[in-house]
Amino acid sequence: MRLAGAIAYDIKLQYRHGFYYAYLVISAFYVVLLRFLPDSVRETADILLTFTDPSMLGFFFIGGLVLLEKGQDIHNTLFVTPYKPEEYILSKTLSLTFLSAISSYLIHISEFGFTTNPLLFMLGVVLTSVFFTFAGMGVAFRCRSLNGFFFLSTMVTFVFLLPISGFLDIWSTPLYYVLPTQGSFILLRSAFEQIPASQILYAVLLLAGWGGLAFLWTRVSFRKFIMLRMGGDGP
Question: What is the rounded end-to-end Cα distance, in angstroms, of the chain?
Fold first, then answer.
């Protein structure tokens, strides 16, 4: 299967570029940090740190990888092969999601093990990673430089990270319930508490829906700024 081969190739590529080493160092730092935190905040910190793996790391790692490939003109060779844009997008996303899932799993079990809903917890990691990787890729397709990527990504991620304030009981609004991050925190909380079935269904549908929208937007970005060579209009 061509997609499976593409995923395997991307895993090798990410390993070659040091992604696995970077994730190993970051994960080790998170584990050490958790062990030095007071018990009263350790569960909250675990959810926040786990969230950064599939979201922020996935977003910026995929952005850096896409910009690296653009700089090496790798995308120019894609159109002389049967390789489809959808396969390119999915292989990049699923390979990085695999890495995020491993990292998040190791961070969590190193301190807490799995006592409640491990499948829901990992589902939250995977769906969060898929959404943010799609989003990071779509932003990177539209940018010509790393500075442009950071500028545009700051505006994009700021909106999606707003529900963190609700999770920390700093400030809350019903508007958070339309953002995918709200679903992420519901599923990640399942590692420490029982979540009602209605909330689980809402969280899964919310993340899956946003993931689908992000995929469509990323595919449009790829066709417009890569296939049609309109990247010059990016920031």
Answer: 36
